[in-house]
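User: Predict structure, ligand zinc ion.
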Amino acid sequence: MRLFRPRNIVLALVLAGGLGLWLNRGAVASHMMGRIYERALGKDPFADMPDGLSVALCGSGSPMPDPTRAGPCTAVLAGHRLFVIDIGDGATRNMSLMNLPPAKVEAIFLTHFHSDHIGGLGELMLQRWAGGSSQAPVPVYGGPGVDQVVNGFMTAYDQDHGYRIAHHGPVIVPPTGFGGIPHPFDVRKGQPDRVVFQDKDLKVTAFPVEHQPVEPAVGYRFDYKGRSLVISGDTAPSSRLETASKGVDLLVHEGLSPRLVGIQHAAAVKNGAKTISAITHDILSYHTFPEDAAAIAQRAGVRQLLFTHVIPPLPMRALEGPFLGRSRQIFHGPIQVGRDGDMISLPVGSTEIRHTNRLHTFK
Ligand SMILES: [Zn+2]
Ligand SMILES: [Zn+2]
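Assistant: Predicted complex:
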């Protein structure tokens, strides 16, 4: 008789329901898959976004392997216009997962030509073309040498270009739309900042940074309807970046923890790994320690600091504290250690700063 207590009946129903779901898990998953694709393909991916300036990390990593971080890539949304700053390995895939369709990319801006910042350029150019029937190549802005980078990737993808047209036909993949058009600009040390893109309410300014021996190496400032942000690219502490960042809403800065890289270095020395011990020594000179970036953000009066290009990999969130060190005592605004998918939005007509993650909460 005790078996038929209400609590036991509810428990039995729950178990039966769970068993039913488990037995039909393939059909349930297929139904959910259809719903997700309908949502992803059936609406403007930016329809829910307020008018504003947003940053989304399609890659928060560096050349060091990190299974949770793609190579360096920062997407910028100005209103519903999509731009990409650097395009590391794996970042194009992240963009699709974040519902930032490569086909909607209006222009690409490169900070410099280290492999981790350009490794995904061929894939993004191909996906933008083949995924959206693009009629024209994507503009790619960068310092002198950007033409060599763009044309090199186009040469490497030339055969695939032919395969796609032969397979899908020129209506779906217009032959004229493939690849990129380089837009070189000359911004070097000793020269003033330069507006490299201006259209309607959006202005993009490039300024030189400190990444010797890499030249050119620039950062970018975006201004849109009274909201503003700066993206550092790779740099040691830079006075030009600090000046360009005066009063911006958001500074997206690279960061290298000398303590944590020191752990890598000590292990390499202990094991006689000469190449790794040399690299973990050399990289300290042309990146910025988080506490130094925090000091720059504080002096420049920025409102929020977002770290990207995180070195070394942080496989556990518990490492974020050691990565930041004393940064939170130095910079008095909010600090975030960026992860793939993180989005920060700055709605126009307000001082609001919104945080979401487009990778882990599908929208
Ligand atoms: Zn880099
Ligand atoms: Zn670099």
